[in-house]
């Protein structure tokens, strides 16, 4: 440099400054992109392709350290150029540094948990103390001798409650956009996981476990990204019941209390009407079924079937098959709660008829009377109980998106 003519020295300094400014600009843009790309792709009411979702999740996963490297690069450029550039260039450097810093900060913020705050320390009260409307729905879980109810209007805001019931660690989840309430075991390969809300994929919530940062699909329990990709959560049987019916069955059960910090933001009583007006991103036109048609989804031995809720409530009792599995779909005495049972008892295929009064069932074969819990309470089969089959509500667009080969029940 000392032996160069002055004009060449000036050009060399300018070239070096130009390269450094370009490095700072690219670094600031990359830092901002670590936030912008996931926010653009993983947002409600926008279709997510599998490939772009994977890219967005990868960017978000790498974002904190990548944005940190970008901030360091901009800082180094500022240090090297500060004394050699004019005031305008200094202002530009400060702007680039602020942009890089902003990107680095926001990569550590879960925007979805800013919108729907987590319920990290859930508390419970007795069924008698709970101020839940009798006709409000709850997600009911019973493990061993312990029974708990999670009001849907509470769950619809928090989306996830990490809990332990009957000694079993569970994740109680609810996604109002697709009307899916599911409970999953938090044990995978012997490891205890803690779940957080991570975004949305074609109208269904995404979960992230803190231990491995894997991303899980709420309505299927499958890991779609991260170290545990391809793993499957184990479903814990649950029921969506009216609070009144659940309380009559579990008078000593516990109910999730509202979080006083966010209770004012919980879903209104008519939340289903509002959700039914939201746009969907899964095309269901070829099926001839409206995207917000509410279904009861059942999967047995790898075969799936969707039952329109309005058909179930109208019929009160449906006897059907999914593959080779006979089953019965029955409505409770509240006219709103639904359960599904195995139609076989000890290798005997039972045929049921709707009862009167409190809508108990009678099997035609023995004349035994059965309650809504699937147990015979009168007759020769008294004390015997049918096996309940896991089933959950789901809007048609979400059910068919994850069960493309599903059959549909028709009256």
UniProtKB/TrEMBL annotation:
User: What keywords would UniProt list here?
Assistant: Membrane, Transmembrane, Transmembrane helix
Q: Which InterPro entries match?
A: DUF3179 (IPR021516)
Keyword hit for Transmembrane helix: yes
Q: Where are the transmembrane segments?
A: 20-42, 62-82, 91-112
Name of this chain's protein: DUF3179 domain-containing protein
Record the organism: Tunturiibacter lichenicola
């Amino acid at each position: 440099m000392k032996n160069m003519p002055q004009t060449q020295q000036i050009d060399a300094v300018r070239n070096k400054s130009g390269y450094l400014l370009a490095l700072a600009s690219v670094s600031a843009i990359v830092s901002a992109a670590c936030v912008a790309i996931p926010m653009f792709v993983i947002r409600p009411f926008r279709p997510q392709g599998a490939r772009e979702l994977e890219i967005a999740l990868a960017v978000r996963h790498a974002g904190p350290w990548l944005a940190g490297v970008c901030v360091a690069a901009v800082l180094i450029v500022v240090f090297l150029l500060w004394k050699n550039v004019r005031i305008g260039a200094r202002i530009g450097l400060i702007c680039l540094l602020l942009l890089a810093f902003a990107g680095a900060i926001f990569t550590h913020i879960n925007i979805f948990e800013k919108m729907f705050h987590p319920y990290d320390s859930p508390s419970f009260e007795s069924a008698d103390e709970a101020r839940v409307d009798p006709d409000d729905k709850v997600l009911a879980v019973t493990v061993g001798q312990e029974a708990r109810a999670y009001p849907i209007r509470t769950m619809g805001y928090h989306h996830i409650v990490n809990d332990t019931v009957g000694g079993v660690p569970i994740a109680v989840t609810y996604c109002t956009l697709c009307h899916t309430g599911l409970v999953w075991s938090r044990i995978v390969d012997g490891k205890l996981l803690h779940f957080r809300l991570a975004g949305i994929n074609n109208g269904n919530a995404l979960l992230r476990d803190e231990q491995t940062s894997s991303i899980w699909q709420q309505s299927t329990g499958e890991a779609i990204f991260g170290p545990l990709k391809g793993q499957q959560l184990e479903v814990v049987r649950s029921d969506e019941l009216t609070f009144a019916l659940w309380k009559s069955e579990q008078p000593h059960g516990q109910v999730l209390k509202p979080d006083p910090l966010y209770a004012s933001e919980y879903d209104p009583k008519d939340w289903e009407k509002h959700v039914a007006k939201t746009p969907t991103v899964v095309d269901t036109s070829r099926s001839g079924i409206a995207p917000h048609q509410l279904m009861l989804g059942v999967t047995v031995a790898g075969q799936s079937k969707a039952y329109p809720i309005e058909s179930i409530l109208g019929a009160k009792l449906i006897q059907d098959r999914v593959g080779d599995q006979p089953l019965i779909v029955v409505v409770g005495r509240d006219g709103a709660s639904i359960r599904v049972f195995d139609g076989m008892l000890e290798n005997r295929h039972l045929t049921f008829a709707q009862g009167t009064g409190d809508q108990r069932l009678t099997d035609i074969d023995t004349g035994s009377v059965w309650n809504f819990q699937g147990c015979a309470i009168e007759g020769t089969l008294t004390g015997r109980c049918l096996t309940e089959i896991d089933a959950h509500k789901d809007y048609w667009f979400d059910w068919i998106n994850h069960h493309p080969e599903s059959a549909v029940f028709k009256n």
